[in-house]
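Issue: ligand-bound run for nicotinamide-adenine-dinucleotide - logging full I/O for the record.

Environment: standard queue, default settings, no custom constraints.

Inputs:
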Amino acid sequence: MTSKILVLPGDGIGPEIVAEALKVLNVFKDEGSLAFELEHAHIGGSAYDAEGKPYPESTQALAKKADAILLGAVGGAKYDKLERSLRPERGLLAIRSDLGLYANLRPAILYEELANASSLKPELVANLDIMIVRELTGDIYFGQPRGIEVLPSGERRGFNTMVYTESEIRRIAKTGFETAQKRNKKLCSVDKANVLEATELWREIVTEMSKDYPDVELSHMYVDNAAMQLVRAPKQFDVIVTGNIFGDILSDAAAMLTGSIGMLPSASLNESSVGMYEPIHGSAPDIAGKGIANPLATILSVAMMLRYSLNAPQLAERIEGAVKRVLSQGIRTGDIYTEGCQHVGTAQMGDAVVAALRA
Ligand code: NAD
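Outputs:
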């Protein structure tokens, strides 16, 4: 079967890092181990420049037909003054909700070779391997009513609504349990059930569902404690499943444990395993166009794409192995550089991964 992959380079360093990820993907095409067709389209600021909106119909039509989407990053200062609905980040929210990408998988992996890059002591984080499963299309980010109103007193009042339906909780919990089954079989569900009714329901349903997954050890943790435990003893976690806002915050904290925003991939999946794959970092306007961005998060996003949407886990492992070998050879972009290593740019890092894959 020939898979359709939509490529959305986006803004800032997006095009530079996506180009390296495509070099890696093309290794598999050249050797005949993966059949795919690529389509390219705009999203974010580049889409606004080309078509006047951050998620144009032309992109939407291609996205609906794709088996998987590879995205660079969106955003840039020149778009910050646009009306809210036209800003690049709106393009991301729109494509996520359009494709029903409700399950966001964010691994926080710390390669042994980079243990010194973390802000925590190396022994607390060496070989860290956590998967955060964050619900992505519900919660307070989408709940109605929302807005800013003027009270009769003249004072303004801002408000949002935290809301989860039973079915939304069930489908993300299922992703959490199934992800744990493929790993070390430990699932920690994070909520604030002592204060928020929406997450009281969350806890009730996750607990009920655990009967269907007797091989998975389920625990519950309040979000404030989870934040503390993540920086105290992060290796206690295997898989964390949580709602949109808690997941947003916890996954950034977990990412920083690894010390290198340029290393971490992510996947956002819908019910039919169509997925959008992107690095967790943004468009890094401060280094865009300089050829120095780290492309490894995007290359590792391709590995996730192979595993979760294209059913090629063995190719995913080959990419992850190649990245590990490149790191153990001491090859580093600036963001992960330490003395004595070989300092390379974006394209050289991509070439090094390609060479390791071909070796
Ligand atoms: P950022 O992640 O773009 O950059 C933060 C810092 O990390 C910068 O110093 C940057 O140079 C560095 N950095 C990021 N990726 C790197 C890489 N691959 N290699 C080396 N260094 C890297 O976050 P920001 O500066 O807060 O945001 C910049 C823009 O990106 C904003 O417009 C923001 O809205 C947008 N953004 C987009 C996404 C996304 O597309 N998913 C996510 C976050 C932020």
